[in-house]
Amino acid sequence: DTEVTQTPKHLVMGMTNKKSLKCEQHMGHRAMYWYKQKAKKPPELMFVYSYEKLSINESVPSRFSPECPNSSLLNLHLHALQPEDSALYLCASSQDLGLAGGRDTQYFGPGTRLTVL
Amino acid sequence: GIQVEQSPPDLILQEGANSTLRCNFSDSVNNLQWFHQNPWGQLINLFYIPSGTKQNGRLSATTVATERYSLLYISSSQTTDSGVYFCAIGGSGGSNYKLTFGKGTLLTVNP
After folding, report:
1. Is the CA virtual torsion A80, A86, A92, A96 positive or negative?
2. pLDDT band of A2, cuts 50, 70, 90
3. Is A1 a residue whose pLDDT tops 70?
4. Tens digits of per-residue pLDDT, B49-74?
5. In this complex, which of A33, A42, A104 lies closest to B101 when CB atoms are compared?
6. Chain B residues with beta carbon closer than 8 angstroms to that of A2
7. Residue A100 has pLDDT above 90, yes or no
8. Which residues of A75-101 are buried (b: 16+ CB within 10 A; e: fewer)?
9. In this structure, are residues A90 and A23 in contact, taking their beta carbons and an 8 Å threshold?
10. Fewer CB within 10 Å: C terminus or N terminus of chain B?
């Protein structure tokens, strides 16, 4: 099973709201990722977690706060977002960050479409 | 960082036709994945292919790492093949998992 799930599917929030996006995988993967995708653009990496520790933050503004409570779950906490943050937020996972045997193959969830009013 | 170029940007086919999508990249790679993004936004893994050739049903892919390109072949296309096809690259030097996506090829298959 190569399934990554994300909730909610759609989210509308105001600029003063606090909300969270959730991602879950049960493949035993130890690396998890957040990507942001604007309309008609490719996905862009935001964060990488490896063994529940933050490995990469691609200079993402602090209004986005990731959290990895355990090896199966990844959250993205949102606060004081701007309308330009409206996008599709994609979560992915891989076995780990290593190379051998394609352990770095990434599997994506269906995404959360976020609209900031 | 690594540069990824995909061609063509748009492709319109009649059902049953074959097609070839190309991905050129600027540096050596340790991770190369082809994805299909359906109209609902789901990114579906097609191939993990940093080198060599793989086939899965009507789809096949070839990566020639020494010449820095990868090809995705779609045979006997169906309307459900419509969507955006992305090539994503992870480089060498410990950055294999930091995928850089090309701009994609938008494929439309008409009945």
Report:
1. negative
2. low
3. no
4. 999 999 999 999 999 999 999 999 99
5. A42
6. 45
7. no
8. bbebeebeeebbbbbbbbbbbbbebee
9. no
10. C
Token pair 């296309």 in the structure block, residue: B77
Question: pLDDT (tens digit, 9 = 90+) per residue, A8-29?
Answer: 999 999 999 999 999 999 999 9
- Dist CA B10 CA B8 (whole Å): 5
Residue A40 and residue B103: Cα distance in Å, rounded? Answer: 9
Contact assignment for A108 to B45 by CB distance below 8 Å: yes
Distance from CA of B24 to the nearest CA of A (A): 16
In the beta sheet, which residues pair with residue A70? Answer: A73
Residue A76 contacts residue A89 (beta carbons within 8 Å): yes
The pLDDT value recorded for residue B94 is 77
Q: In this structure, what token pair is assigned to residue B31?
A: 């991770």
Amino acid occupying residue B14? Q
